[in-house]
Amino acid sequence: MNRLPSVFVSHGAPSFAIEPGLAGPRLAALGRELPTPRAVLIVSPHWMTPRPQVGMVERPRTIHDFGGFDPALYEIDYPVDGHPQLARRALDVLQEAGWSPRPDGIRGLDHGAWVPMLYLYPEANVPVFQVSLPSRLDAESAWAFGQALAPLADDGVLIVGSGSLTHNLYEFRGHHSHNEAYATEFAAWVRDAVVSGDSTRLRQTLALAPHAQRAHPTAEHFWPLLVAAGAAAASLPATVIEGGITHGVLAMNSFVFGSAGREGHGDKSIV
């Protein structure tokens, strides 16, 4: 198998599981387009630990780690297998890169993992295992964490960073009759950095992009983008999966980094 790309997915709110909007069908199309991986490794801000942990569970349960949403969400089960063998490989590459990882034999998949998987692989026929996001990251170390995981792409693993292109929870809870300009402008800035292949500018997003503090009052939902990009640093620029904006403030664009993601598309958006 040729080297797989890496993917950043905006998972938005948990309601994305039942409200596909623009992003859902396009992620489903991406799942059909990509070469079938041996497994998906997914990093989500909803599992953060001081040192990275790697899920070793044979059959990870579906975790409903949210409250106050449509009751239908709590009935969803994503009955997927894990992949302990490739999870062990993830432990090895992280150890070799100096991250001192630990195995986890209990935890299932949080909504940052299973919600996007509902679209990418709706049949739950591709094994999934999760790697926790280190809790003390900055832009450079998030990028380095992706670089540490990069060898797995040569082993048939699809590396997915799941976060949100914008993530202001206070404003999400409000009622918005239109898309907020700050979310649109921030998303456009990031899109330009990604499409132009400017990795330095991308790593400086939270310092340079317009409205960065408002788009990300805390950074944990942005770091998975840098993890995914870092895992394919030799393969910038990327393909854009246009997802629009939901709830007026959640930008839903996703990105595919690597040649498999650009096959047949050049550096154009998937619209």
What would you say this structure looks like, in words?
With 271 residues, the protein is α/β, with parallel strands linked by helices. It is 33% helix and 18% strand. The protein contains 11 helices and 11 strands. Helix 4 crosses helix 10 (223-230). The protein is globular and about 45 Å long. Mean pLDDT is 92; it is low at 261-271.
Give a quick summary of the entry:
The protein is 33% helix and 18% strand. With 271 residues, the chain is α/β, with parallel strands linked by helices.
Layout of strands and helices, then pairs:
Elements: E1 6-10, H1 23-33, E2 39-49, E3 53-55, H2 84-96, E4 102-104, H3 111-120, E5 128-134, H4 139-149, E6 157-163, H5 169-172, H6 181-195, H7 199-203, H8 205-208, H9 212-215, H10 223-230, E7 238-241, E8 245-246, E9 250-251, E10 254-257, H11 259-262, E11 269-270
Parallel strand pairs: 1-6, 2-5, 2-6, 3-4, 7-11
Antiparallel strand pairs: 1-10, 7-10, 8-9
Helix pairs in contact: 1-3, 4-10
Q: What structural class should be given to the helix and strand makeup?
A: alpha/beta
- Element string (H = helix, E = strand): EHEEHEHEHEHHHHHHEEEEHE
Main sheet characteristics: 7 strands, mixed
Q: Indicate the low-confidence ranges by residue numbers.
A: 261-271
What is the overall pLDDT average?
Answer: 92
Q: Give the strand order, joined by hyphens, for the main sheet.
A: 5-2-6-1-10-7-11
Counting DSSP H or I runs of 4 or more residues, the number of helices is 11
Number of strands: 11
